[in-house]
Structure formats: structure tokens, C-alpha cells
Amino acid sequence: MEVISLESGVGKAAIRAAGVLRQGGVILYPTDTVYGLGADALSDDAVAKIYAIKGMDVTKPVHAAVADLEMADKYGEVNDIARKLAEKFLPGALTLILKIREGVNSGIAMGRADFAIRIPKNELCLEIARTFGKPFTTTSANITGQPPARTVGEIVAQLGDVAQYIDLVIDAGALPDRKPSTVVNVVSGFPSVIREGEIPAADILAFK
């Protein structure tokens, strides 16, 4: 497990992270909410590592970080309501569940009819997405059912033996105590709040 400090610079960290992602590896990185586990979102093998690390049921969805709506629209249909919500809340703590594009069927998209995306309000995440050039997973770095930890040391301790499957750690120190992203399904053309997080559900539903 390689560990680098974010103090070394966003650009340097993003280049190293993108290199690991291209090789099918897993990264531990800070977001605008909690630390996340990142892997090539379209790679079956890389995504399988994420499920294994978290001890997560493979039927449960994993979301992807993208650089912008243009990238998101290659994998999921960015309809009118998705675009309106994005204009208001993105980059930020909002996850949009989109109707999947035809032909997108690997990695987190395998067997699914939707593709969930985030555009985090975090320059490192955005720079990784730009440098990597395609989506990478953004799921909290914790064992399923346990609370996300706020420091790298606490995360590694919680993960135990499976932490060995993480190839690169980008350490930004202790993250503030924040709520997770608000998850909104927009497949139908109307917003449906699946999980209320940092953004209040009432603010989302105002866009009906």
C-alpha cells in the first residue's frame, strides 16, 4: 500500500491516482463528504475489489465520480430534471441516478438499468476524473454496516486484512464530520429522494 499526502499537491496526487486506476487498482481518497474507495467504474475486476473490501452485497449499487455532466451523459441519460438539479447543486453533495445508456453494461453497470453519478465539490476528485478520463467509483471507505471513519488510520484499522487490497492512499488528514450525499433518482423525469444527506430533501423536491 502506497501512501501519499495531499500536501504534495492535487495535480501530483491525481496523476498517481489515475495511473493506479488504469492498472485496475484501488485508491483511498478524500471527497467533499467522507473518504472514498475508487476503482475504474467500468472494470468488472476492479469493481469486484470494491465489493470485496466493503463486504458488500453485489446487488447493491455503487456510484461513480465524473468530471462534469458531459462525461456523465456518456453513461447515463442527463434529462431535464437532472440538468436543473446539477445546475443548482453540482459540484456538491448530490448523487443523481440516471437511466443507463445502451451498451453500458460493465463494472458498476453490470445488470443494472441505471447509472449513478457524483460531481464532488472537491478539486482532487475532479482532477482525478479529468486525468483518468472516465468514471471511477465513489463509495464510502468502510465495511458495510459500519460508520465511515474520518481518518486514514481509522479506516485501515476498520477494514483490517482487506485493507491490503488498496493500492494507493491519498491522505488529507482528518475530514470534517459531514453528512453523505443526497441520492436522487431522476430516471422518471421527476426527482425521487432515495437518501437524504447534506442537501435537504425539501430543496430537491422544490424542483418538481
Helix/strand layout:
Layout: E1 2-5, H1 10-22, E2 27-30, E3 35-38, H2 44-54, E4 64-65, H3 69-72, E5 76-77, H4 80-89, E6 94-100, E7 114-118, H5 123-132, E8 136-137, E9 139-140, H6 152-159, E10 168-171, E11 182-185, E12 192-195, H7 201-205
Parallel strand pairs: 1-10, 2-10, 4-7, 6-11
Antiparallel strand pairs: 2-3, 3-9, 4-8, 5-6, 6-7, 11-12
Helix pairs in contact: 1-5
Labels describing this entry:
5-stranded mixed sheet; alpha/beta; 29% helix; 208 residues
Overview of this protein structure:
By secondary structure, the protein is α/β, with parallel strands linked by helices. Helix content is 29%, strand content 21%. It has 7 helices and 12 strands. The strands form 2 sheets. Strands 4, 5, 6, 7, 8, 11 and 12 form a 7-stranded mixed sheet that branches. A hairpin with a 6-residue loop joins strand 11 and strand 12 (192-195). Helix 1 (10-22) packs across helix 5 (123-132). The termini are far apart.
Strand coverage percent: 15-25%
Nearest-integer average pLDDT: 95
Number of helices: 7
Strand count: 12
Low-confidence stretches: none
Biggest sheet details: 7 strands, mixed
Shape: globular
Describe the structure concisely:
With 208 residues, the protein is of the alpha/beta class. 29% of the residues lie in helices and 21% in strands. The strands form 2 sheets. Strands 4, 5, 6, 7, 8, 11 and 12 form a 7-stranded mixed sheet that branches.
